[in-house]
Amino acid sequence: MRYQAALRSDEARDSSGKIRDSKFRMCFTAQSKLPSTRLFAPHQCFARASARILKPSLKDRPKDTGKQRSIHKPRSFSMYQHILIPTDGSELSQKAVSHGFDLAKLSGARVTILTATPSYPVTYMEGSAASNREFAETSERQWREDARRAMEKVLEQGKAMGLQAEVKVLSGESVSDLILDTANEVGADLIVMASHGRKGIARLLLGSETQHVLTRATVPVLVLR
Question: Which residues form the UspA domain (predicted)?
């Protein structure tokens, strides 16, 4: 610590050498490198010490330019920019939607919700009985209706979280191709999806399609089980 000391004055002593009631007192301030002896009155000692302890030096203060100082704000978490969430309305698929929304809320990413329903190719149905064709058409209509209901539920959930999601309802021979093509089209850098769908055929379909997405995707894929 650097000190400057103010000592009692020799002139404050009487002829016998005894110290009179002096107006000088000792005070210390962190002012210079080497100790030096100077005389200060009591009020000067207090003022100088207070100035050093309580008030910063004028030359250390920033100059007032009349402009408002800018406040630095930390950047938000932005690992992902666009998240694609395929869903079929199943319970597990809904969990994937919730996780995707949480990531989007944290990172500020855009969200695209995709419901991809399989359609039976004409070649597959050729030579089949009319009843089988009717069953295929009925199943496809049911999947579309389920997709519409799933979209309504997802949009309500996103709105409650303050998120606006783009919705796509597509139909094709390969659900995995629809997912991968959509991810490429919208520029998604993350796919969040369930490991399987509803019970029965739909469960098997989405399960196999998820495996295809995992092996062919060029962006990270988060799979919920």
Answer: 79-225
